[in-house]
């Protein structure tokens, strides 16, 4: 969707609209930024259907907003850290413009993506937090292997592990990966309420893994909330 904004004189600015599910201010619950106050812009729509997805409410529901409206809403929270998530943010044509506009306003910008689409659609000054989907998600065949060569030291990768087969898959993927990311930017998370975190911890310790374990912090803080946090 596009909006046309006409200026006096000869220049025409074309700006994009996006479909937004929710915008909220919370404690970052994932990534290397976990624990920091953060504004979340959750975009509508996803091209995958992971078996464990905790955000199905963002598949279809949303309202149209112009980039400028999103910037105003984000600014109202007075927080420098912003995450664009979804749904799948790289699906929407306006996401690159939104990310670059947030950077221009001085925000630190995280983009959470499922790894099936070209991550270079968004500015490399963003930290792209890229899931590598494991077999138990049912969507591992959608991983774009070319994304591994696009990662920069500012990005993060994430394996959401549902069982031991997923853990082995993650180890094998790391073995084959270019050595771009430091170990603290390689994240292993358990599928909430499916894989007990102590089991994942044991596997990671036994493998002497060079990666960071994560538990979704917001689900610990707000166990009974499934959106808006
Ligand atoms: C809702 S997704 C949105 C961004 C993008 N679609 C993706 O999958 O990365 C955000 C993150 O939540 C993770 N996630 C979704 N459901 C989960 C669950 N039940 N337990 C743990 N992590 C989950 C996803 O794997 C992803 O890392
Ligand atoms: N608090 C909080 N932190 C998050 N980090 C990534 C999230 C996401 O859904 O992408 C998320 C979320 O939904 N809530
Ligand atoms: S890619 Fe992300 S939003 Fe889409 S189904 Fe999987 S976890 Fe949910
Ligand atoms: Mg979430």
TrEMBL record:
[4Fe-4S] cluster binds at residues 46, 50, 53. It is an enzyme of class 4 (lyase). It catalyses: 6-carboxy-5,6,7,8-tetrahydropterin + H(+) = 7-carboxy-7-carbaguanine + NH4(+). Keywords: 4Fe-4S, Iron, Iron-sulfur, Lyase, Magnesium, Metal-binding, Queuosine biosynthesis, S-adenosyl-L-methionine. Substrate binds at residues 27-29, 42, 85. Mg(2+) binds at residue 55. Binds 1 [4Fe-4S] cluster. The cluster is coordinated with 3 cysteines and an exchangeable S-adenosyl-L-methionine. One of its GO terms (molecular function) is 4 iron, 4 sulfur cluster binding. PROSITE patterns: RADICAL_SAM. GO terms for biological process: tRNA queuosine(34) biosynthetic process. Coiled coil: none annotated. S-adenosyl-L-methionine binds at residues 52-54, 87. SUPFAM superfamilies: Radical SAM enzymes. Pathway: Purine metabolism; 7-cyano-7-deazaguanine biosynthesis. Its cofactor is [4Fe-4S] cluster; S-adenosyl-L-methionine; Mg(2+). Residues 33-224 form the Radical SAM core domain. Its EC number is 4.3.99.3. Homodimer. Catalyzes the complex heterocyclic radical-mediated conversion of 6-carboxy-5,6,7,8-tetrahydropterin (CPH4) to 7-carboxy-7-deazaguanine (CDG), a step common to the biosynthetic pathways of all 7-deazapurine-containing compounds. Belongs to the radical SAM superfamily. 7-carboxy-7-deazaguanine synthase family. This is 7-carboxy-7-deazaguanine synthase. It comes from Desulfosarcina widdelii. The lineage of its organism: Bacteria, Pseudomonadati, Thermodesulfobacteriota, Desulfobacteria, Desulfobacterales.
């Amino acid at each position: 969707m596009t909006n046309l904004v006409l200026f006096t004189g000869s220049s025409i600015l074309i700006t994009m609209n996006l479909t937004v599910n929710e915008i909220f201010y919370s404690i970052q619950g994932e990534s290397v930024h976990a624990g920091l106050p953060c504004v979340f812009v959750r975009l509508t729509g996803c091209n995958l259907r992971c078996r464990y997805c905790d955000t199905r409410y963002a598949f279809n529901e949303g309202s149209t907003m112009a980039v400028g409206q999103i910037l105003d809403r984000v600014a109202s929270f007075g927080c420098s850290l912003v995450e664009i998530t979804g749904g799948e943010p790289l699906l929407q044509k306006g996401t690159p413009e939104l990310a670059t506009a947030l950077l221009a306003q001085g925000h630190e910008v995280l983009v959470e993506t499922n790894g099936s689409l070209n991550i270079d659609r968004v500015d490399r000054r963003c930290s792209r937090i890229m899931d590598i989907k494991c077999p138990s998600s049912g969507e591992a065949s959608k991983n774009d292997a070319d994304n591994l060569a696009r990662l920069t030291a500012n990005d993060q990768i994430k394996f959401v592990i549902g069982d031991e087969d997923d853990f082995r898959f993650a180890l094998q993927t790391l073995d084959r990966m270019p050595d771009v990311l430091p170990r603290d930017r390689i994240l292993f998370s358990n599928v909430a309420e499916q894989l007990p975190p102590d089991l994942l911890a044991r596997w990671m310790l036994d493998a002497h893994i060079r990666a960071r374990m994560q538990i979704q912090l917001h689900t610990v803080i707000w166990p009974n909330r499934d959106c808006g946090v």
